[in-house]
Amino acid sequence: MNATGLITEYNPFHNGHLYHLNQAKSIDPDAVIIVLMSGNWVQRGTPAIVDKWQRADIALRSGADLVFELPFYFAVQPGDIFAQGAIRLLNDLSINRLVFGSEHPNTDFIELAEQSVLLDGDESFTNKNATYASNFANALQKETGFKLDQANDILAFSYAKAIYQQKLMDKIEIKPIKRISSDYHQSYIDTDSKISSATAIRRALSEGKDVSNLTPMHDLEYTDYEKKYFDLLKYRLITDNIGQIRSVYQVNEGIDFY
Question: What fold does the segment set 3-182 form as a domain?
Fold first, then answer.
């Protein structure tokens, strides 16, 4: 029996995710649909606005056969580590196909990943005011002609790179599908469409707007976690010394002086 894997956050589950699920099912109607979903904490390091049990329940009621949790360690990491952990786990679950959204679904992401290997750790990255990710994207474009600057393309590339590095090309087929209607980072809902980004839906909820036409989830509520936890973060920044701040995982050079 074949198994199709989806890597998700569902924060919250919306009509775009339902489209993704349906597209995955249409590729191979007889395949088991395995969803690997972030738990109560998501990639930006904030709590999900809906707990993992409700999100897993809506995924199962929308067509998924199994939902597994992506462990916290991987769920809150940058895209490359997020992808490495997700692909390793899905391989352990014996998927033979990965379906994901992409702005450029006709791109051969495996070939792109293979071409990018020589760029890792490239000492020619000279723009010290840019992040490593920006320098890498510029180098990749120079090498391959592909501009890696769209959110879903970046994740697609990360998945392909993880598959390539873990030598799973003969085990896991990748199937990009075209992201429709809204951009991943779109911050406002599209009133002319029934599909909006999770970012836009969360923002609309924070403004007290009705999002019932954008998601099959009911009675959604928004909690401003940034405001809720800011005083705690501020307390730690004021009371911790520089050495303690520097010891926090992924604190970049210079943050300790702000």
Answer: Rossmann fold (3.40.50)
Kindly state the tokens that stand for 195. 């599909």
Average pLDDT in the 220-248 region?
81
Q: Please give the Cα distance from 89 to 150 (Å, whole number).
A: 25
Q: What is the DSSP letter of 251?
A: P
**DSSP assignment, residue 159?**
H
- Measured between alpha carbons, how far is 98 from 102 in angstroms, rounded to an integer? 12
Write out the two tokens for 90: 């899905």
* Residues paired with residue 173 on neighbouring β-strands, in sequence order: 97
pLDDT digits (tens, 9 = 90+) for 147-199: 888 889 999 999 999 999 999 999 999 999 998 765 555 666 776 688 888 99
pLDDT band at 252 (very low <50, low <70, confident <90, very high): low
Cα–Cα nearest to 199, from 7, 44, 5:
44
- Give the Cα-Cα-Cα angle 146, 147, 149 (nearest 5 degrees): 145
Residue 171 φ/ψ, nearest 5 degrees:
-105, -35
Give domain limits for the chain. 3-182, 225-258
Q: The whole model's pTM is what?
A: 0.87
